[in-house]
Amino acid sequence: MSVTSAVDTAVKSRVTHDQESILLGAVEVFNRHGYDATSMGLLAENLGITKSAIYHHVPSKEYLLELALDRALGGLEGVLADPLATTSPAVSRLDFVLRAATEVLTDRLPYVTLLLRLRGNTELERAALERRRTFNRAVAELVDEAQADGAIRSDVDSRAITRLLFGMINSVVDWYRPDGRVSAAKVADDIVAVAFGGIRN
Amino acid sequence: MSVTSAVDTAVKSRVTHDQESILLGAVEVFNRHGYDATSMGLLAENLGITKSAIYHHVPSKEYLLELALDRALGGLEGVLADPLATTSPAVSRLDFVLRAATEVLTDRLPYVTLLLRLRGNTELERAALERRRTFNRAVAELVDEAQADGAIRSDVDSRAITRLLFGMINSVVDWYRPDGRVSAAKVADDIVAVAFGGIRN
DNA sequence: GTCTATATGTTGATAGAC
DNA sequence: GTCTATCAACATATAGAC
After folding, report:
1. Which residues are CB-neighbours of A54 under 8 A, at least 6 positions away?
2. pLDDT number for residue A10
3. Separation in Å, CA B147 to CA B25, B98, B158, B193
4. What does residue B2 show for φ and ψ, rounded to 5 degrees?
5. Mean of the per-residue pLDDT values for chain B?
6. Residue A14 pLDDT exceeds 70
7. Alpha carbons A28 and A44: distance in angstroms, whole number
8. Domain stops at, among A59, A81, A112
């Protein structure tokens, strides 16, 4: 997005968009109002252009969702592709994956936020949720292996543990703000500390 | 809701609703499609009546949301009113509140699910989120006290701990199903076990 | 790259009959 | 307690001018 004015100062008078700036603004509004509740009119208002101008850059509202979800899922899938995610022992790989997944959430916050709030009511949403489930399953297998190694507790079902781990990690989108006092690295440290050690002294 | 037929058998031929059955059906559809994305037409279709019939029982779509949120928040606020939530030491009260909050989630699952997915875009939603925040703050104070007592770790900020605890508890609405293999009591046990002890052996 | 104008359908809600 | 019929507002998306 470029901002221009008569003498090219910081005065915001007119905006010109490309697909990237449309996407960025759209995802922000999607997250504030919910994807379904966001009308193209509201989106246009927030971008400072008309509805028609949006359709010059993207063919539909759903295409914007598709682009956003791809960024979120691409980030998560990238975690599993890292060499550190495939080097034993399992508990070390689990530690890495929890940290890396948390980093993806903080780095790509608006895109992952959108992903985590999907319902699965359209084909596109169902496909995205299936990719997310595949990622979750891979982590569940790590938990299983770590249990088999005796590295983590086995008195709680591996699926239950996986769900609670993601409960903590995914909650990041509900309270982390990139401009806040807490750094992204500290968030990952806290999550791993509480996940592995618990809160009891 | 009553189901009647010519000879009063189990054959479903015609449904008659009251406000309670409207609410129950509405919350189910709200959770499946999202509150905003649920039209009165879709709601009517799911209830087996027309839009107009719904308006005989409730004045608006938002009123249904209000009823639902009150049940969720009433349950959570009831947790803090319990004598066990006000008896020292802090770490015992925290244990109780985590269990009791989890029970509220499983007992009133559809209502709390709706609450946890709010955005805060209307006055009603903002009021509900404020009540939720008040509950969260009370738990954060318990965490603070337990840290002061030396009962739980102090190397992680009390607000961070509170957020992660709620991350685990609130994730329940994303995976717990009352008809499933896992009992509600087991869910609370697992959450408390992982929260206090962590997963590392 | 953005605009105005418009097509076509859906929305929440109401009036009044049975 | 439910229905049909209706409304004004708003939805996504397109056509064509600048």
Report:
1. A22, A40, A43, A44, A47
2. 34
3. 43, 16, 8, 18
4. -115, 145
5. 93
6. no
7. 12
8. A59
- Angle at which helices B123-148 and B61-81 pack, to 10 degrees? 20
**B33 CB and strand C closer than 7 A:** no
Output the distance from B53 CA to D5 C1' rounded to whole Å: 14
Amino acid at site A168 = M
Q: How far B167 CA lies from chain A's nearest CA (Å)? A: 5
Nearest to A195 among B119, B182, B198 (CB): B198
Comparing every residue's Cα with the C1' atom of nucleotide D11, the nearest one is A39
Work out the percent of chain B whose per-residue pLDDT is above 70: 93
- Distance from the first to the final alpha carbon of chain A: 51
Dihedrals phi, psi of B11, to nearest 5 degrees:
-70, 120
Determine the pLDDT at residue A15: 77
Same domain, B90 and B126: yes
The answer to whether the CB atoms of A201 and B155 lie below 8 A apart is: no
Tell me what the mean pLDDT of segment A109-118 comes to: 98
HSE, side-chain direction, 13 A CA sphere, residue B68? 30
Q: B189 vs chain A: nearest CA distance in angstroms?
A: 9
Q: What is the mean pLDDT of chain A?
A: 93
Can you tell me the mean pLDDT for A118-127?
95
My answer on whether A96 and A44 are in the same domain is no
Of A55, A60, A38, A66, nearest in space to A123 by CA: A66
Which chain A residues are closer than 8 Å to B37 by Cβ? 34, 36-37, 119, 121
Assess whether A178 and A80 both reside in one domain: yes
Give CA–CA dist B64/A110, Å, rounded. 30
Range of the domain at B89: 65-199
- Are the CB atoms for A16 and A4 separated by under 8 Å? yes
pLDDT at B10: 35
Beta carbons of A7 and A86 less than 8 angstroms apart? no
